């Protein structure tokens, strides 16, 4: 009888504890690029269609509690263009939303490629899709209202802050605003997020050196400062290649914060060995009555298949590990660059990642 009583009591306590917990899984993707070849590939007799680009990964994206992507091509309207000054069809953002992305980051070095009109049109198009956005604003009043972006999900209050190192020499003109990486302003914004009741603070900087697989001194210095200021997650973009991930621990060995320096190109037509793939980064945020915890930082390798890899097929984001396992059933034109990307990234992460950050497959 006593044993049964103790078991029932234990079951009750565990049930209460589980009910008291709030949990959310966050997913981050890298640079959503839009080169001319992608635009031409998406063209249809009636417009543009990008849905097939994300069919292999949409279930994974949609399974997250909140999914974030860096939109690195303004929606400036026709005529559309690729590098060096990007302008994507509206259908590109529509397909990203259909794929499951909830939050679009817009502060990057290409956000002014169509000047202020392109910046404003991008904002209005994203608003019409009813997605969240961060990084650029049409006025100071709009920025005050939306920055820091505070979202409440599963009882957890998340603050998102997005900044860019620059805008390719194009100066933003009032009343429009681009969040630039200025340490004093970022630290002030972090404090504002805390005062606004944020449980978790996430900073997404557009930073670093293009095509370098290791973070530079300025990235590391800024990351250290933000961690010390109480930022929980730092998820970077811009280098167009994958850079290491660091899980920073507190004095009792729990994860204090995670820094993912660069996730690489989520989708693009970049053709060098290190730019054809990327990672999606996931982390669990857990809140209970006593504290907030960052748990299980993990990543999955993805790869952009393009027409040059498989003739007659368009641009498609693939779960890299699952497709690599297909072996001889995929053509060598795809398997060779896919294998190289997977091997290169696993080697980089085995040598440079810090803390427990695991690979997963989907």
Automatic annotation (TrEMBL):
Signal peptide location: none
SUPFAM superfamilies: Metallo-dependent phosphatases
InterPro entries given in the database record: Capsule_synth_CapA, CW_Biosynth-Accessory, Metallo-depent_PP-like
Pfam families attached to this UniProt entry: PGA_cap
Domain Capsule synthesis protein CapA: 25-270
Domain of life of the organism encoding this protein: Bacteria
The family this protein is said to belong to: Belongs to the CapA family.
PANTHER family: CAPSULE BIOSYNTHESIS PROTEIN CAPA, POLYGLUTAMINE SYNTHESIS ACCESSORY PROTEIN RV0574C-RELATED
UniProt-recorded name of the protein: Poly-gamma-glutamate synthesis protein (Capsule biosynthesis protein)
Protein source organism: Coprobacter fastidiosus NSB1 = JCM 33896
């Amino acid at each position: 009888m006593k044993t049964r009583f103790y078991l029932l009591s234990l079951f009750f306590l565990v049930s209460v504890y589980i009910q008291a917990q709030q949990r959310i899984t966050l997913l981050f993707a890298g640079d959503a690029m839009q080169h001319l070849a992608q635009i031409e590939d998406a063209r249809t007799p009636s417009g543009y269609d990008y849905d097939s680009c994300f069919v292999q990964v949409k279930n994974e994206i949609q399974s997250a509690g909140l999914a974030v992507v860096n939109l690195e091509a303004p929606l400036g309207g026709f005529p559309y263009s690729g590098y060096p000054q990007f302008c994507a069809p509206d259908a590109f953002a529509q397909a990203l939303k259909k794929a499951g992305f909830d939050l679009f980051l817009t502060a990057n070095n290409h956000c002014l490629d169509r000047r202020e009109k392109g910046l404003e049109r991008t904002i209005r198009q994203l608003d019409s899709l009813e997605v969240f956005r961060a990084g650029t604003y049409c006025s100071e009043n709009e920025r005050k209202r939306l920055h820091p972006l505070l979202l409440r999900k599963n009882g957890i209050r998340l603050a998102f802050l997005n900044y860019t190192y620059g805008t390719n020499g194009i100066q933003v003109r009032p009343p429009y605003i681009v969040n630039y990486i200025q340490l004093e302003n970022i630290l002030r914004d972090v404090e504002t997020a805390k005062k606004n009741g944020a449980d978790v603070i996430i900073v997404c900087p557009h930073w670093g050196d293009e095509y370098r697989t290791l973070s530079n001194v300025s990235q590391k210095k800024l990351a250290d400062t933000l961690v010390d200021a109480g930022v929980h997650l730092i998820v970077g973009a811009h280098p167009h290649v994958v850079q290491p991930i660091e899980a920073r621990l507190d004095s009792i060995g729990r994860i204090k914060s995670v820094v993912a320096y660069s996730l690489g190109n989520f989708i693009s037509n970049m053709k060098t060995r290190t730019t054809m793939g990327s990672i999606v980064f996931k982390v669990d945020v857990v809140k209970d009555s006593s504290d907030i915890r960052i748990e299980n930082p993990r990543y999955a390798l993805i790869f952009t298949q393009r027409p040059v890899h498989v003739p007659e097929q368009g641009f498609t984001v693939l779960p890299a590990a699952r497709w690599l396992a297909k072996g001889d059933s995929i053509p060598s034109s795809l398997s060779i660059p896919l294998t190289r990307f997977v091997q290169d990234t696993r080697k980089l992460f085995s040598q440079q990642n810090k803390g427990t950050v695991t690979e997963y497959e989907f």
